[in-house]
Predict the structure of tRNA N(3)-methylcytidine methyltransferase.
Amino acid sequence: MAAANYYSKDFEWDQLRQEIENNPSLAHHLLPFPNSSINQNQHTLLSSPLSLCSPQEDSEAWNNFHTRHSTGKFFKERRYLLKEFPELASCGECWTVLEIGCGNGSTALAILRGNKSISLYACDCSKEALERAKENIEAADINLAKERFYPFQCDFSASGFPNWLLSTSCRESSFQKQNMCSSGAGSCSKQAFPDPPISAKYNSCLAGVDFVTLIFTLSAVPLHRMSRAITECFSVLKPGGLLLFRDYGLYDMTMLRFEPEQRVGYREYIRSDGTRSYFFCLDSVRDLFCSSGFIELELEYCCVQSVNRRNGKIMRRVWIHGKFQKPHVQVGP
């Protein structure tokens, strides 16, 4: 029953929007950002100079974050995900998932627990996050979880994905070796997937994955690198594969807590620890994914209201739920 709160509709987003936009104390969230050329009518994502930073700085900020939260369970296992994305539970053997921005493994745990045959490749820009994820997976009582979990370090928005995931020749091929576990195919190769750290020894690649999950990850990517990040996701999916998306929505409670000096761009903020967060509207998500070639299957606000038991304060959370598909390869006449 606890998971039900994550995908219920407790209030209408348009009503929240009207309330926020009519509140003078929150006006700083709505103002155009200085020195930013963002087109608010077309929802084009453009960066402010203040938001620019190096990938190394981003990785270091998240390393420090996960070091501080190395004890205890800062992120709870996201068991609601398989109800939001039932495809992860219903797919059969030899299907693969690429979990991007795996953090401490809260998403990976839910997927591995919900599907006993799926293989999961998980990346993060933070070494500390990967260590936490491996520890949590090894400690979980999940059938063959360690044998089906392949963590590796990667900042997909800056360097792209490694060749063992999808080689350069596969990227350039319009067919991507559809005989190797293609989405929707009736058969698959029985060859075991190589472990990422030693996969360079193999003269082959995975030829893409069936699913990509972006769960509260894209919002942490600097705005000016988001477009490339989505293009990378598109490239590693097999034809017909799905990208499953969940992230912070516009006017979420956490957005309204940021002070004016924490704004580094339009709807873009940076915390005191150097980690960042962007808050999406439906149009900005749609533009990002569809301009990269994806087909929109589902896209909506998820509005959840809960009460803080300690102080009785009402908390209104806004997330965006999305499901996008890479088109199937077009076969000529």
User: Anything to note?
Assistant: The longest strand covers residues 295-307. Residues 82-186+194-325 form a domain with the Rossmann fold fold (CATH 3.40.50.150). The chain has a mean pLDDT of 80. The chain has one domain: 82-186+194-325.
